[in-house]
Amino acid sequence: MLSIDFIRENPDAVRKAIADKNVELDLDRLIALADEIKSARQEIDALRTERNRISDMFKDASNEEKPELGKRAKEAGKKAGELEKGLSDQTDEYKALMLQLPNIPYGGAPVGPDESANEVIRTEGTPPSFDFEPLDHVALMEKNGWADLSRITQVSGSRTYCLKGRLALLEQKLMAWALEEIMGNGFDPITVPAIAREDAFIRQGQFPGHREETYELEKDDLFLAGTAEVALTGLHSGEILESDQLPVLYAGYSPCFRREAGSAGRDVRGLLRVHQFVKVEQYVICEADEAVSAKWHARLLGAAEKLLQAMEIPYQVIETSTGDMGLGKYRMNDIESWVPSLGKYRETHSCSTLHDWQARRANLRYRNAEGKVVFAHTLNNTALASPRILVPILENHQTADGRVKLPKALHELMGGDEYL
Ligand SMILES: Nc1ncnc2c1ncn2[C@@H]1O[C@H](COS(=O)(=O)NC(=O)[C@@H](N)CO)[C@@H](O)[C@H]1O
Questions:
Q1: Would you state the pLDDT for residue 189?
Q2: CA 236 – ligand 1 centroid, Å
């Protein structure tokens, strides 16, 4: 969300953001509604002041004056009530439009309609060249008994999987390892539920635009989140944090659920795009200062890159375009890991700065150094998400005999065995 004052003072910047993020939004209607609501509120206040003024006159009035005074007070109160009633429809429409407003994107983001406009800003590591015909992760798992991708679909439907044996163990170890690594950066580990109320999704930004991608528990008015970001955004909603409580740094672990409604036919084989997965999420609430946000953005990105470097996975960092970064982002850098069987890099991490767009929706505020209560800034980034990260791990480190030789950091995790 943006502040209405910002919108009034920077209509062109907001109009450009709406265009560059492919948002359908009538900004003139929003501003007109804001003006109508503002003048109606001023009129209501004036009527209420008039009614109170007349009531004050009542006690000293003569018996002849009282009926007229009572009539005028009643009329003022009635008119105020009618205006108030008319306001509720306008206020609902105004709030709905405010929730659809995009954040102003970073000036260095490529302007474009979708991921085709994304730019590679750096590449780390070299994709392996095999002197044998490499297998894809599904074949590797089948050869080693590391997964069930067929029987389970009778139980749970498409885009579900079972990990088995040492691969199942590796996933658990990877999550603990990611938590520990991020804890080492001063982040507090916290496990959060995927279950959350509708409000939490509005505050985080998933609703109203991406409701379709979210599982709903209708009988209970609850939903299943696709990222710990939902719970972590709602955790301090409505509080006023003290400046010495900032930055709030969470390493959030949660199961993640996604309907993938818009992904029919994409990544249907294997572990890249599934309905349920696990993730360690880096989440920051910091002071409302662009330089501080930029510092945390770089740290979040660096922490994820450090994990990829330890896993010896070749990757590239992307500057995400205005059309691909999503409504609430000021800036988004995805990290894409090399997937040999596809011969290309695929997104495994997503690092975002939102400034106060999310904090305004979630009413996340703090008392700044001058004692003023202001909206905070928030950021989030993937530390590690599985099973998607297993794809580059298995495929990049496979050997000619169909085994997987773990990089040093991981074979220490797995009790010293150098093979999975
Ligand atoms: N359907 C899915 N199946 C498997 N992994 C997924 C799926 N959707 C997302 N992920 C993983 O979760 C990571 C983060 O997802 S994201 O939507 O891009 N970003 C977020 O959720 C942010 N909160 C940062 O983590 C992705 O980079 C990917 O590694």
A1: 98
A2: 23
- Return the active site residues: 258, 273, 347, 350, 388
Task: At 79, list the tokens.
Answer: 């008119």
Question: How far separated are the first and last CA of the chain, in Å rounded?
Answer: 47
- Which residues, in sequence order, are CB contacts of 396 under 8 Å at separation 6+? 127, 128, 312, 313, 314, 338, 340
What number is the average pLDDT over the span 126-130?
Answer: 98
Pocket, ligand 1, Cβ cutoff 6 A: 227, 229, 258, 260, 273-274, 277, 279, 281, 347-350, 380-382, 385, 388
Domain spans, the chain: 4-99, 115-414
What's the pLDDT score for residue 36? 95
Question: For 369-400, what is each residue's pLDDT tens digit?
Answer: 999 999 999 999 999 999 999 999 999 999 99
> Pick from 178, 194, 196: which is nearest to 382 by CA?
178
ipTM, 2 dp:
0.99
In whole angstroms, give the CA distance from residue 75 to residue 82. Answer: 11
CATH fold of 115-414: BirA Bifunctional Protein; domain 2 (3.30.930)
* CA distances, 10 to each of 31, 95, 229 (Å): 12, 19, 29
Fold (topology level) of 4-99: Helix Hairpins (1.10.287)
Report how far residue 57's alpha carbon sits from residue 53's, in angstroms, rounded to the nearest whole number: 6
Both structure tokens of 189: 């580990």
- Residue written as token pair 């979040």: 300
Instruction: Give the pLDDT confidence of 275-286 residue by residue, as tens digits.
Output: 999 999 999 999
Region at 2 (left for phi over 0; alpha for psi -120 to 50; beta for the rest) = beta
